[in-house]
Task: inverse folding
């Protein structure tokens, strides 16, 4: 899909997101009517349509930009658990420790 110079998405792309779910639900209703299994295909295809619409919305979301204008994934660093960076350095050791127990 083509991106406008201003960074805004085409209204047609947003229309596609809404029609994803509606088309799946209508398709489920038609299948249920023809096969006589009323709530089954409607429920299943509505969930499938909602998931596919959400995936399309995520794909349409522009990447975050940092102060330099570079695209990021929204995280400054990769961690390997609480307080540990992927490089093995314990970041929580850099912070001043909190006293344990009630104040004297």
Result:
């Amino acid at each position: 899909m083509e991106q406008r110079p201003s960074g805004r998405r085409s209204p047609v792309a947003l229309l596609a997101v809404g029609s994803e779910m509606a088309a799946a639900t209508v398709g489920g209703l038609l299948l249920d009517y023809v096969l006589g299994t009323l709530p089954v295909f409607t429920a299943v295809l509505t969930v499938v349509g909602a998931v596919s619409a959400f995936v399309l919305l995520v794909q349409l979301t522009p990447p975050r930009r940092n102060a330099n204008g570079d695209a990021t994934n929204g995280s400054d660093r990769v961690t390997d658990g609480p307080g540990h960076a992927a490089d093995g350095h314990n970041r929580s050791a850099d912070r001043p420790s909190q006293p344990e127990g009630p104040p004297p």
User: Anything to note?
Assistant: Residues 93 and 100 are 16 Å apart (CA to CA).
